[in-house]
Design goal:
The structure holds two protein chains of two kinds.
Chain A: H1 15-31, E1 46-51, H2 57-68, E2 72-77, H3 89-98, E3 103-108, H4 113-120, E4 124-130, H5 136-150, E5 157-161, H6 168-179, E6 183-187, H7 196-199, E7 203-204, H8 207-213, E8 217-220, H9 235-242, H10 246-254, E9 258-260, H11 273-276, H12 283-300
Helix pairs in contact in A: 1-12, 2-12, 5-6, 5-12
Chain B: E1 3-4, H1 6-22, H2 24-27, E2 32-37, H3 41-54, E3 60-64, E4 95-103, H4 107-117, E5 124-132, E6 144-148, E7 158-160, H5 162-165, E8 169-171
Parallel strand pairs in B: 2-3, 2-4, 4-5, 5-6
Antiparallel strand pairs in B: 1-8, 7-8
Helix pairs in contact in B: 1-3
Classes of the chains: A alpha/beta, B alpha/beta.
């Protein structure tokens, strides 16, 4: 693939870039089977995780990925940083540049912040989630998980269920899946699903329509209470209307469909306990593949910090 | 442009497999493993293992991609694509034969040695190649060479194998 410094959105990538990163993800997964689960590709490189929003999974997944590539990892924790003391994003960037970081992994509650940081520094910047905008590394691990399960993403049907409107996961994952030739549909509470004329993506309102559409994968989103100022609905009603209940799980099982979820899971809201043990529940595969996908992303980006100036 | 033909390669592989069979006594009790470097060495390793198996001398087969161990990743603008490795066994105590299509600077062999040690501690490692075109930059020498092209001013040795390229030949 052509040299590329940053990964901000899926749409900024060419088809070739997407396929290259996916192909290398598979090779990265081979490393997990070695007795030494590490390769020297990024030896001596510095990786900083800069999370302005709480996250355990994504941050530790990136950290494990960086360690397995032999990079040195520094965690910049917002609650202990100067941000709470009022430092601006620009001043933070200056500080980071002085620290000579090669890769910066950013999560921020506002859309566009990772792109701003990317423009102003030589380090490779990876968007680890910005507002309701994008979460490209999640998209790669989702696409890889589907490819691994079915051999190919093209021709598969994936229905994404939940709060689509506030979800950067829905946005990035549906983008990559469609770029790779899958068909995507949305389902969720009416006000939280964008209309088809805005997205080109079919919009369902109930499970019967989903089963009629004959999907391969049921992709559940987490109900993000923290992103909604006033709760739109009580959780019990959500489970009954949109969640994977025991009864729906039986039909999902009969039809041999897969279940995916970006985590963390709200049991009893999006998904019943039994579904977590379901034979085609791919949630743990997603976690494992997340490390491999992030290794591939780190490997394929080229920071401009190696130019000696 | 000089060419080594399909028949020449066929005969060379026969002699190569023979050489490996002859070494049986010297290997003693150590299990033989033929490990090819992706993407042409692995094809040669597979062909050698097939010949050895047919001759009643089974050997383990492995393939390694050394890209993540290259010493020039930082010097390149873009990163080379990765390919899958397949080494489903520990290298502990094995008599290991590393196979590549062309040996030149020795940098690939160096990287391959680093990979092998992450799978265990082999008893012995040999380096075998189809063609040696010289130009060594490291203290690495082959134990077996099918075609010595070191005196051929062979700047460009191209190995084609039917599994990957549709035909068997070497041009230089």
């Amino acid at each position: 693939m052509n040299p590329r410094k940053d990964l901000i959105t899926i749409n900024s990538l060419s088809d070739e870039d997407i396929r290259t990163i996916l192909a290398s993800t598979s090779a990265m997964k081979d490393i997990f089977t070695k007795s030494v689960k590490k390769v020297p590709a990024l030896k001596g490189k510095s990786v900083l995780t800069l999370f302005y929003e709480p996250s355990t999974r994504t941050r530790s997944s990136f950290e494990v990925a960086a360690h397995r590539l032999s990079a040195d990892v520094t965690t910049f924790t917002v609650s202990t940083s100067s941000v709470v003391k009022g430092e601006s994003v620009h001043d933070t960037i200056d500080t980071l540049m002085s620290m000579k970081m090669d890769y910066i992994i950013v999560r921020h509650k506002n859309s566009g912040i990772p792109a701003v940081i990317a423009r102003h520094c030589k380090a490779a910047v990876i968007n680890a989630g910005d507002g309701a905008h994008a979460h490209p590394s999640q998209a790669f691990l989702d696409a890889f998980t589907i490819q691994e399960k079915y051999g190919d993403v093209a021709g598969r049907r994936v229905v994404i269920i939940g709060d689509i409107l506030h979800s950067r996961v829905a946005r990035s994952t549906s983008t990559i899946l469609r770029r790779l030739g899958a068909q995507v549909a949305y389902m969720g509470p009416g006000p939280l699903v964008p209309p088809r004329q805005h997205t080109g993506i079919p919009r369902f309102t109930n499970w019967e329509q989903i089963f009629e559409w004959k999907p391969d994968v049921i992709y559940l989103l987490r109900v993000q209470n923290e992103r909604i100022d006033t709760p739109f609905f009580p959780t019990a009603d959500y489970h009954a209307a949109f969640g994977v209940t025991e009864e729906r799980l039986r039909r999902i099982d009969d039809l041999n469909l897969s279940i995916m979820h970006p985590g963390p899971v709200n049991r009893g809201v999006e998904i019943c306990d039994t579904a977590m043990e379901y034979r085609n529940c791919l949630i743990n595969n997603q976690v494992e593949n997340g490390i491999a996908a992030r290794m591939s992303i780190l490997y394929h980006l080229t920071p401009q910090t190696q130019c000696h100036d | 442009m000089p060419t080594i033909s399909k028949d020449d390669i066929e005969r060379a592989l026969e002699a190569w497999a023979d050489h490996l069979l002859q070494g049986r006594a010297a290997r003693g009790s150590a299990q033989l493993a033929i490990v090819g470097i992706v993407s042409h060495g692995d094809v040669l390793a597979r062909r050698l293992v097939q010949r050895l198996t047919a001759a009643g001398c089974p050997a383990l087969y492995g393939a390694i991609d050394i890209t993540l161990y290259r010493d020039d990743l930082d010097l390149r603008g873009n990163r080379p694509a990765l390919r899958s490795s397949h080494l489903p066994f520990s290298t502990d105590d094995l008599h290991l034969v590393l196979v590549d299509d062309v040996l030149s600077t020795g940098r690939t062999a160096r990287a391959a040695l680093e990979v092998l040690w992450e799978y265990g501690r082999p008893a012995r490692v040999e380096m075998h190649c189809l063609a040696d075109r010289g130009g060594r930059q490291l203290p690495i020498q082959p134990d077996y060479v099918a075609f010595d092209l070191t005196s051929a001013a062979a700047d460009k040795v191209q190995v084609h194998l039917s599994e990957l390229d549709g035909s068997d030949d070497i041009t230089y």
